[in-house]
């Protein structure tokens, strides 16, 4: 019975004979199409008739049926559990994404089961009325720790539907609510995250790494691990087949093949081994053979169903027609029934209804679709596409005569008359991915991309990257595709566009003859490389462009504007590469050339070019520590761009935002924090408006501006606003770093470390640890390929982590971080003693404290004694190091007492003497405390 005053309200929708009701949530309904989405209590794995599963062995690979016990992914499960339990936010959302075959659905189902056991109400969200959970669903959180909502196929949802979903009262309960979106890519997350921000929800991403990723991630790399996972899958399949003595079934293919880095590959090998053993057949001996074997079993099932129609089974589609429909489904992905009918008619299938009905028998539509459920897993679907199209050499699997025509019908559609593809990127994404393993597909890609080069852009970075390395892709075609690239940044294309640009540059240079044409080719390459974060290569290409344009400008002064453009770009790239001295020379020359041009002709483009060079020079001067000069040139840039934006907001607002952002940084460096906050805040407001219209182009600068705004807010005492802004910046930079690590990963790591510092400054040490750990992981990974670039920031983060773990009483973790920090700083100090001796001294003092905490007193004293010696050497030549020497002496006094009280007393006496010699004021609270403690130690040790 409900408590007094409680009112239970249930909404029921009856549609096409199905009744559906919810309690404790809302129901959004199309007037003519039924529910927009359905909410259902999570029921766990789908049970299926064992004989039905065995009809098509590929069904056994479908995660919905949970045939194989869940193993591995412990790190991902830990991350999901921590996200669910440790967030202080009432509403938190996470975007879990991975390509097909990496196990995201299996992971989500396992997480759901664990959450139910832990006392959470788990709710499945199904898109559209195609999936119909029957009956009434009580979604009230009564008696549960919280609500976990699973949204599968999130990348297929129209944004408006997601907005309706997020407005549902289910997301506005008093208990913690967690929303886990499952997607095949990060595409669409930015828009969803924006809607969640309006609900003050915490947001995060969870890329599911392949099992063959580098050490430190959940992976299957060692032969023993692979064999264990093979055996788990083999035994599970054998039970379904009713086979005893499964241990006698060996792997059909050596498991050290690189293709077995994916769990899916191991499951495929186990399934083929068991099925072949059951049938008394010989299992194939290579990876291609595994796919061909499973596809033969698919076709055999189609044939069996068709032949059974003679015995009264309602199945009228012959195997050849089912082959074509399955091919279409693999290309288009699942869609609505009405759209599926239109797509089949597009492929000259005139009576689609019985065919779709029969296809659903073989491939039952799963939420959120109503028809054309594709073959799973994706790798099998890719192989199916490749074997269907002509040109391969697998004699046992002849190509389909209709393959090329059907592919063309789906790829090249009249936008006015043809039905839109449900997932426009899917065909080209699947084809390019398959082409990396099936070279004959390059010819098909050549044919269709010549007809429509913009198809290449639909697949984003993965497709462009694949096209850039495929040997069979025509170089002229790649050149044509490059002419379709957008002019500026495009988050989901930048990395791929750079790869294509590198591939075609030699071809383009060979096709031109003049110096200016060659310079233009090189400058375009540099732009693409810089957008992808490949600044060193961008600088090399720009240096060549500068040489060419300088030679022309000497002969023809009217071309000096082109030289100024290349010099500005070169200065920018050199600044990014940590070469501000050489960058400044290029930028001064560029600025002078552009100032002369603006004096002679004050048109808007000339003034804009001057503002651009001034802004770049400000960044460079700041990198050199010349902050007053940097402020002056940046202020001039803002003045120019503000006037330009007043004349033409659409054209010049982006430049104004950039200069204001830089001005905020310049003011902050001068200690003028409130003015910096005003400038950066104005930049963020402009960038938000720009990103609303073109997110991919402006997301990068918006993320960095938000990062800087959080720092300005923190410096002006607005800590809560600073934390919220830093969180928003982290969400954006996380996605940007995932899409384009070369351009954004370092910035993301620095922000994570600063976010950790924010938490620590507020005394929230436990919350400070996760972002610091994430930053350390990034720097450690980057250091694997460039130790010089990764060592210094990694050591900084590790030092911070040591302190955080010490504050939370995790002394052994603190000690491990300190030991690694000292190893890095010692290596650096040997190479560059003047630069890193002080950092080594700090790390040694910290190591001494951590060793002391775990009662390793002699080692602690040795570390701190070395720290004191280094500080003493440094203080001899630079008095600014004296305060650090005093602090290290106090640490020496503390750690020496269990081992050598005389050394402890001497250290305390010298520490007091040095502290007393400093001009300590109210702002030196920590050192004043140490002075008082040192005096107390002197008194006690002398007594």
Automatic annotation (TrEMBL):
SUPFAM superfamilies membership: TPR-like
Protein name, per record: Tetratricopeptide repeat-containing protein
Chain segments annotated as transmembrane: none
SMART domains in UniProt: TPR (SM00028)
